[in-house]
Amino acid sequence: MQVGLNMSSPWRPSCGEAVHLSLVLALAALLTLPPLARAAVPTASAQSINGPASDYRIGLFDKLSVSVFGVKELESNSIAVDAVGQIQLPLIGAVMAKGRTCNQLSDEIARRLDEHYLRDAQVSVIVAESANQKITVEGAVADPGVFQIPGRMSLLQALAMAKGPTNRANLRDVAIYRDVDGKRTRLLFNCEEIRAGKTEDPEMLGNDVIVVSESAPLAMFREVVGDIGAFSIFAIFKP
Fold this sequence. Notes:
Elements: H1 15-31, H2 46-50, E1 63-68, E2 71-80, E3 86-89, E4 93-96, H3 102-116, E5 123-129, E6 134-139, E7 145-148, H4 155-161, E8 169-180, E9 183-189, H5 191-195, E10 209-214, H6 216-228
Parallel strand pairs: 6-10
Antiparallel strand pairs: 1-2, 1-5, 3-4, 6-7, 8-9, 8-10
């Protein structure tokens, strides 16, 4: 038995099938269009968004990295802030850390070292692990939710913690909502440029909310196809 196409009677879609076929082809064309020109939006530079990191206040049970230039014996990569907010250091003993910024704590340690042991001590304090800071990642990511910041974290690292963006994500406009000078501020970043090394990967702060929007053409495609209901585009091609 031979099976083949009957060229003498070509398939012609019905009126309803023709309408649906035109709709699908139009949507497919829409997805291949170049992105529309976007209105200019003030986008924070990496420097301006990273700046507030110096304002972080050390909390209970944070783990700090403390180093003193030229004095290896005074270096430690994991000093825990205790239940009363202090850290214990060689030579100078207990130092109150809770409520201070890293710069304020380093100045206090340097001052106390200068009094009895070192002249012009150069002290560096970094929060190696924060016990109190969380960020929220929502939108077009695989696993949205609220996550603990283990220490210093960048935007791309935060997205990876949410198991990465979905295939519907618009990575050209990823929004970070942050409190800046007492006001809730939206900052936009192009993650495609960050991945390509064209833009610096910004540092995340506690209480940041990252929102990854969906690509507009893909969202429109999903909405229209959903409106079609039970109709299958593959039914157009049935004999």
